[in-house]
Amino acid sequence: MAILDPYSGPARALNIALRTAHLGAMALLTGGVAFGVPPGSLETATLFTVATGAALLLSEMSHGGGWLTEGRGLLAIAHVGVAGALFAAGQGRAGAAAALVVGAVGSHLPKSLRRWSLRRGTGDPGAEP
């Protein structure tokens, strides 16, 4: 059971604040990577990006158990997986670029694609699996 109704005004405000903080942290991290800032100097931006991203994932998952099998959940997994793998492999620029592209695409997909589900085979949340 969710602590806060994910569709309530306070939950929406929290989600907007988390998303804004995540974009800001990601901007600092991506800019630092692009301009060759030593990784040690980017630790705070990296930590803040990861922390706000994890909080966003938890917030999004509170919308229902099917979230992970929908387009939006699958793109979130791809966003984290691709970026994390590239950063772990020492490919920070590619990881930052991948995170930006996958995140931007996922955020701007039509609702029918964001809500499309592997289980339901449709973007209609009322359809039976």
Task: Describe what this molecule looks like in 3D.
There is one protein chain. The radius of gyration is 16 Å and the shape is globular. It is about 65% helix and about 0% strand. The mean pLDDT is about 85. It has one domain (about 10-115). Helix 1 (about 10-35) packs antiparallel against helix 2, helix 1 (about 10-35) packs antiparallel against helix 4 and helix 3 (about 70-90) packs antiparallel against helix 4 (about 90-110). With about 130 residues, it is mostly helical. The protein has helices at about 10-35, 45-60, 70-90, 90-110, 110-115.
Low-confidence stretches: none
Sketch the major β-sheet.
none
**Helical fraction:** 55-70%
In whole angstroms, the N-to-C terminal distance is 22 Å
Strand residue percentage: under 5%
Task: Name the overall outline.
Answer: globular
Number of separate helices: 5
Q: How many discrete domains?
A: 1
Counting helices, strands and paired strands, the structural category is: mainly alpha
Mean pLDDT rating:
86
Total strands: 0
- In N-to-C order, the SSE pattern is HHHHH
* Rg on CA atoms, Å: 16 Å
